[in-house]
């Protein structure tokens, strides 16, 4: 009898719209990551010709930026090119880790959607994994600082936004 009353009270308390919006954003983001990672693993590493074409385009962009004396962006593009090489060297593993991390994020959002505080803690773990996952395959000295800072800011903002709904979540 007591359990039925608790369940009825939980259903009476309306889910915050803000939490719904955050969960939808998380599901969309993690869904695209999962689909992209699975499609990448199924289609396999790009061919040598495709990689060569990509490198040519990157070199042309770097040349244009050098002509404009935009040294910072030249360095960023060179680092991004090195990151791409490292990603191609471990293509399946890189995509596999991205898929697993995204699934953790989707699971965390699902738990929070169901009013479970443990989902928030899982989301913090997901956010940390999201920021560091590239370091499994890419040397830290290659990563441009703005990529690291941007990932931390995005992860931190979402953790903060989800924390605004903790009072609604149960256990």
Would you kindly provide a brief summary of this structure?
With 171 residues, the protein is an all-alpha fold.
Blueprint of the fold:
Layout: H1 2-12, H2 17-43, H3 48-67, H4 71-89, H5 91-113, H6 118-132, H7 145-163
Helix pairs in contact: 2-5, 3-4, 5-6, 6-7
Can you characterise this structure?
The chain has 171 residues and is mainly α. The protein has one domain (16-161). It has helices at residues 2-12, 17-43, 48-67, 71-89, 91-113, 118-132, 145-163. Helix 2 (17-43) runs antiparallel to helix 5 (91-113). The longest helix has 27 residues, at 17-43. The two termini are 20 Å apart. The model has no long low-confidence stretch (mean pLDDT 90).
The whole-angstrom Rg is 21 Å
The number of helical elements comes to 7
Count the domains: 1
User: Given the C-alpha coordinates, what overall shape results?
Assistant: elongated
Annotation keywords:
7 helices, 171 residues, mainly alpha
């Amino acid at each position: 009898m007591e359990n039925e009353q608790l369940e009825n009270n939980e259903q009476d308390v309306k889910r915050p719209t803000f939490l719904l919006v955050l969960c939808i954003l998380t599901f969309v983001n993690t869904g695209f990551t999962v689909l992209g990672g699975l499609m990448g693993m199924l289609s396999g590493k790009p061919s040598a010709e495709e990689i060569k074409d990509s490198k040519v385009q990157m070199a042309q962009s770097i040349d244009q930026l050098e002509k404009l004396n935009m040294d910072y962006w030249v360095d960023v593009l060179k680092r991004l090119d090195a990151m791409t090489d490292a990603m191609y060297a471990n293509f399946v593993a890189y995509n596999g880790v991205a898929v697993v991390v995204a699934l953790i994020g989707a699971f965390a959002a699902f738990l929070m959607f169901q009013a479970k505080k443990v989902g928030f803690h899982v989301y913090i773990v997901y956010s940390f994994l999201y920021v560091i996952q590239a370091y499994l395959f890419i040397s830290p000295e290659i990563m441009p600082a703005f990529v690291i800072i941007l990932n931390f800011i995005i992860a931190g903002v979402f953790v903060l936004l989800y924390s605004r709904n903790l009072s609604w979540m149960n256990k």
